[in-house]
Amino acid sequence: MTASAFELDVPTRPRTHVTPRLQPRPQFDVHAISIPAKTFTGDFWFTHRAAGRLWFALGDVAGKGLPAALVMAMIQEELERRITSCARAGCDPATTMQRLHEFLKPLLPSNRFATAVIGWLGDDGTMTLVNAGHCPPMLVRADGRIEEIDSTGPVVGIMASSRWMSATFTLNAGDQLILYSDGVIEAASPDGEEFGVEGIVQALPALSSSRDIASAIHAAVSRHANGARYDDLTLLVIGR
Description:
The chain is an alpha+beta fold. The chain has helices at residues 65-89, 93-104, 182-185, 196-203, 210-224; strands at 6-9, 29-35, 43-50, 53-61, 114-122, 126-132, 138-140, 146-148, 167-170, 176-180, 233-239. The longest helix is centred in the first third of the chain and has 25 residues, at 65-89. The chain is globular.
């Protein structure tokens, strides 16, 4: 549960022998940054490669400090188990979110909930995801167009009758998917102005790797907030 600044390039293709008759699988460009505001973090993220798909998840537990970190630890463990199981079974991400919610609902106190994005990206560029009340993921197209993916269902862990729907997109060569926690867009300047989605857009470097994009956003947030941090910050960038 104790957290520290974390940055990682995520390998997405195992080292396997490819015969001359087989086409090599595309390698996704994945980079994550996760920095806690203090000792403990309430943010969580996960990637898992299986059966021609890269599964991914990112989310945030309401609240701060140790109580949020305890919930995050439960979610992280269950999320890894659920995604690994659903990857084997070929589940829809909405089913994965539903199962995570059913696990958490009886365990969470009434003042705790989580927002999350769960999805998978296929080797052919097909992407399916579900957004449970989280910050809208950004699809940055190779030509500079930006699309935001709104919620497809409520937050996790509150309402007993919650349901989610998955949305399907295509990630083409040169496109990037940006997932982020609210510690990015709610980072405030000394005069109280939030970084916002506009800050992410303005920070995007042209024709760059996932590492460059994540690093540029992180650096822009730090400049905007004059180095102060009041909330956990997590970024996951996936490029094709």
